[in-house]
Input
Amino acid sequence: MTLTHSPAGSATRRRRGAARQSRAGMAFVAAYVVLLVAFGVLPTAYAIYFAFTDAGGTVTGFANFVTTAQDFRFLDAVSHVAVYLAFWLLSLVVFVVALALLLHRLASGSASKALRFLYYIPGALAGAASVLVWLFMLDPTVSPVSSLLGALGFHTFGEVIAPGNLPLLFTVIAFWTGAGGWIVVMYGALNNIPADVMEAARIDGAGAWQTAWHVQIPMLRKWIVYMVILAFAGGAQLFVEPQLLSLASVGVAGRDYSLNQLTYDFAFQMNNINGAAAVSVELLVVSVSAAAVFVARSGFFDAD
Amino acid sequence: MTVDKPSSGPERVSSKRRAALLAGCAATAALTLTACGGGTTGTTTKDGFAQVPQKDGALTVWVDATRVEAAKLYQQQHPHVKLHIVTYDGDANGSNYLQTKVQLFNRTGKGWPDVVFSSQNNEVTWAVEAGFAAPLNKGLIPTATLADFASGANDVCTVDGTAYCLRNDLSQAVLWYNAPLLKKFGYTVPTTWEDYQQLGEKVAKEHPGYLVGDAGDSFTPEIYLWASKCGANHVTGPKAVSVNTSSEACTKMARLMDVLIKNRSMSISGVFSTDFGKNEAAKVLLMPGPAWYGGALFEGTFKTPAKQIAAAPIPQWKGETAPSTGNVGGGTWLLSQHSAHIKAATDFLKWVTTDNAYQGEKAPGFPAYAPAAGTWLKRQDASGYFNGDLSALKAASSQVWPGWGSGQFSQEAIWAATVKPGLTQGKSVVSMLPAWKDSIVKYATSNGYKVSQ
Output
C-alpha cells in the first residue's frame, strides 16, 4: 500500500512545525525579557522613582533635578562630557571607518588576519585594566614611550594629566580600548557589500578613494549610525577613565570631572541618592533622545 | 572637632531602610518568589544606643592591609574568639568605600562589619548620621581609658560630646632631616620658618638638586599652611566652617613656599610619585612631614639607609613661643551599632587601640593612646634606624593647632584639583590662594556647610 501524501496533512505539519518554532522563539525571547525587566527596566524605574522623590519617599517633583543642576560642579561636568563626546565620536567615526577600509583593502593577505587580531586585543582587556595600562604608558618615569612623551614636552605625570589634556587623554584611552571591536564590525559590514557592486564600481573606473567615498561609506551608513548611538551612550557615561586617573593622580584629575562621577559623588559622598538618580535620569533622557534623532535622520530601521 | 548629629538621623535612616527593604522585597518576590525576612525588632537600649539581639558567631573586622597584622595578632592572643578578617582599602585617598558599603548595607539591612579601621579622620561626619557608628563613651569604653588618649586625639571622633570612634594613630608633623648630610654640608637644623627659608635659599645655591621640602602632595596644606595657622579650614561647629586664605598667616607661608619652589629646593613632585622616587628621594636634606614619614616614607618607600634620618620640632615663625603643627591623617576605629557581638567587638576595639602588644610594639604609626606611645618611642630608638631619638614626635603630639578641622569635604581633594595643576604649570601658591578659597567655599556649601569668610 502506498500512503498518499495529502496536502491537508502537509499543511497541518507545517503549522505544527511553525508553532514549535514560534514556541522556541518565544522561550528564548521570554528569557531575555525576564532578564531585561529584572536588570534593565526595574532598576531604571527604581531610579526614576528615586529621581522624583526625597529620602523619605515623598514625591518632590523636579526638586532633585533643580538641586543637582544648581551644584557648582554640574555645568563643568556637562561641558567636560560634551567636549569629550565631540573628540570621541569624531575620532571614532573617522579612524574606525578609515582603518576598516584599509583593512578591507588588505583583505587578501595574512596581514589582514593579523591586523584584525591586533585591533581586537585592546577590546579584550577589561575597561579598568586598559586604563591601568594607560596610566603606566602616560607616566614619563616608567613609560616605555617616555622619550616620545619627553619630545612632546612632558617630563612628569603631573604635566601629562594637566586639566587641558584630559579630553584628549580620555579619547585616546577610550579609542584604544573600544575602537578595535568596531573596526572588526565595520570590516564585516564591508565584506557584506555585494561583489557585483564593487565590480561595477571598478568597471566604471572608480579608484580606491572614489569607491570608498561613493560606494562603501554610503553602504556602511547604518553601521556607522549604530556605532555612534552606542558610543554616544557609552561616552556620556564617562566614568572609569577619569575615576582611575583621579585615583592615580591623587585627585589632580578631579573626581567630579564627568557627570557619572558627579552622580557617584552625590550618592556616596554627599549621601544624596535621589540627586544622583536625577542626574542618571538626565543622562538616560539625553542618550535616548540622541539615539532617536540619529535613528530618525538616518532611516536606521527602514527596510532595504 | 564638632560635627552635626541631626536629631532625625536614625529615624530617617530607619524609615529609608524599611522603604528600601519593602521595595527590594517586592522586586525580589516578583522574580524569585522568596520571602524577605529579617528586621531589627527586639532591640535593647544600652550603652547609649539601641542594640540588636546579641548572639554568638564570628566577629567581622574590616582593616586595611597595614592593620591586618593587628587583627592577626589579636587572633593569636585570643584563640577562643572567632574572627573574620576582611581586608579593604581602608578608605585610602578618600575612596569612600566604607561609606558606600554602609549605605548599601543600610538598604539591605545586613552586612555591616562589627569593627572597622579607616585611614580617614572624617568618617564620623557621615557615620553618625548614617546610624552606623556606635557611641563609645556611654558605657562601652571606660572614661579612664578615653582619658589616656593624647590630648585632642579623639576630637575628630567627637560629635556633640559623644565619641563615635577611637583614634588609632596621630600624624603630627615634625621636621625630618638627613643628619649626616646636614652635617656634611655644614648646616644646622632651622628652628624658625625664616631660618628654614634661608637654608632653602642656601641649599639652592650651594647644593642645587638637594631638597628642603616637598609641596607636591595633596596633603601639602596640612603640612605647611596648617603649621602656619592659616584659617582655611576652621570647622567652627556643626556643619559650619570658616574659610580665610588671605590672612598674613596664610600668605607668609605661601610666599615662603613660592621662593623655595622657584629655586627648586622644594619639589612639586609629590613624595609618592614615581618621578620623586626615581629622581629626588636620595636628595632629601630636610622634609617637614607627619610622624608616619619616618617608617612609611624614609625607611619603607625611599629605602633611606639607617642612622641618617632624624626628627626635629617643626619650625615656628619668629616671635612665637612654640611651634604649631598640622596633622596629616591618622586612622580611626569605629564600632558598628548593628553589631550582634558588641562585647567581643568592644574587647577587640579596646585592645587594638590601647594594648602595648600592638600599639606599642608593632604599630607603624605614632599611637594616639599615650601610654602606648611611650613604648612605641622606645621601640623606635631600639630599632636603630633613626639618627637620635624621636622625642620631637612626642612634643609635637600636643602642638597640633586646633584651628583646622576634619569636615565632610576633603581638603586634600580640593588642593589636588585646584592648586596642584597650577603648581605644575608654574603658577605661584600666593596667586592661587583666592582660587583655593573659592573652591573650599563651593565644596563646603555643596556639602551643606554654613560658610563664614
Q: What stands out?
A: Residues 173-321+409-452 of chain B form a domain with the D-Maltodextrin-Binding Protein; domain 2 fold (CATH 3.40.190.10).
